[in-house]
Design a protein that fits this description.
Elements lengths: L2 H26 L2 H8 L2 E2 H8 L3 H13 L3 E4 L2 E4 L3 H6 L1 H10 L1 H5 L1 H4 L14 H15 L1 H9 L7 E5 L5 H9 L4 E6 L2 H13 L6 E5 L16 E5 L8 H14 L5 E6 L15 H11 L6 H5 L7 E8 L7 E7 L1
Parallel strand pairs: 4-5, 4-7, 5-6, 7-8
Antiparallel strand pairs: 1-3, 2-3, 8-10, 9-10
Keywords: Methyltransferase, Transferase
Pfam family, one: Methyltransf_25
Protein name: Methyltransferase domain-containing protein
């Protein structure tokens, strides 16, 4: 590689870092939806309608144009070669640039062993929940609906662990119109969003959102009678292994009447070179390694179910971005 080639490669790396934040912002302010729906956007008109600073708005689109996401003719913006794929993966960028920004910003400190105490893992829980709601829509929902449709009983009570924005438990309440629901999450900002969503959906009278650490929560009266237990995108927090086994056993005690447990999560990649990892995988695995959170492989998961008191009935392999899988479990 010549000096010029190296300089160009490094420029692309740097510009892509700027563009990652721009993608997240463009989604949040509605610019990606505008381009997807209409195919063209006038920066000045868009900025005026959204009460944005026009100079700052143009800077955002310059960042997107620098890496081939949009094309720019002065203030006229149209989708470019990479737009469709970026639009599909928009929530991944939000997870990275909004939800996990502080963690990556503090990487030098987080690497130091003596600093890895207290709240060193802190991220923006509301932004993570916002992104994960969208991630769940295309990474899990089609397979989740298939699993729910395959249940051999009518659900009257559901609980979602790590409920985040509350979307999954609300989906279940719409699916089972006589059921009641419980959502559990440790992050108060996410629960506030969940409560607002339940009110907007006119389901607030059928769902209770509980602020608690799933790994250390106490028994509650509302947990009794729950027949369908779900947990998505937080199962890796159960680990390491002995902690996972203990958590699975504890869930049997907390939810003794559970007939099915749908556990959906990412799994660690195996055998993929670092320079061939797909979108999101590197960010997800590096972030959790920085936080000291073990990401299990599929084989790791399959090794704990029986010891934890659960029978694996079926495995729904998804594997769109980060080795997603849904395990369909029932109590032994």
């Amino acid at each position: 590689m010549t000096t010029g080639d190296a300089e160009s490669a490094v420029a692309r790396i740097f510009n892509a870092s700027v563009a990652a934040s721009a993608v997240s912002a463009a989604w949040e302010i509605g610019a990606l939806d505008e381009l997807s729906g209409h195919g063209v956007l006038d920066v000045n008109k868009f900025a005026s309608e959204r009460h944005l600073d026009p100079t700052a708005a143009l800077a955002l689109f310059r960042a997107l144009a620098a890496v081939g996401i949009v094309e720019r003719d002065d203030v006229k913006i149209v989708p470019a070669a990479h737009f469709a794929e970026v639009y599909r993966a928009r929530s991944f960028f939000h997870w990275l640039s909004r939800g996990s920004a502080d963690l990556f910003r503090r990487m030098p400190e987080v690497l130091v062993a003596e600093n890895r105490v207290g709240d060193f893992r802190r991220r923006d829980s509301a932004a993570i929940a916002y992104a994960c709601r969208e991630i769940s829509t295309f990474c899990y929902d089609p397979w989740f609906r298939k699993a729910v449709d395959g249940l051999d009983f009518e659900v009257t009570a559901v609980a979602d662990l790590g409920c985040g924005s509350g979307e999954r438990v609300l989906q279940l309440l719409r699916r089972f119109p006589t059921a009641r629901g419980v959502g559990v999450d440790i992050a108060r900002p996410a629960l506030t969003s969940a409560a607002d969503a339940a009110a907007a959906a006119e389901l607030a009278d059928r769902v209770l959102f509980v602020e608690a650490d799933v790994l250390a929560m106490e028994a509650r009266e509302e947990f009794l009678g729950v027949e369908l237990l779900t947990s998505f995108m937080m199962g890796h927090d159960f680990w390491p292994r002995q902690s996972c086994v203990a958590t699975l056993q504890r869930l049997r005690e907390l939810f003794p009447e559970t007939r099915r447990f749908l556990l959906g999560d990412a799994t660690r990649t195996v055998g993929i070179p670092d320079d061939e990892l797909p979108v999101f995988t590197l960010g997800f695995e590096v972030a959790h390694d920085l936080m000291g959170t073990f990401i299990p492989t599929v084989a790791d998961w399959e090794s704990v179910f029986e010891e934890g008191g659960w029978l694996l009935r079926r495995k729904h392999t998804i594997d769109l971005a980060v080795g997603e899988v849904i395990f369909e479990l029932e109590q032994l």
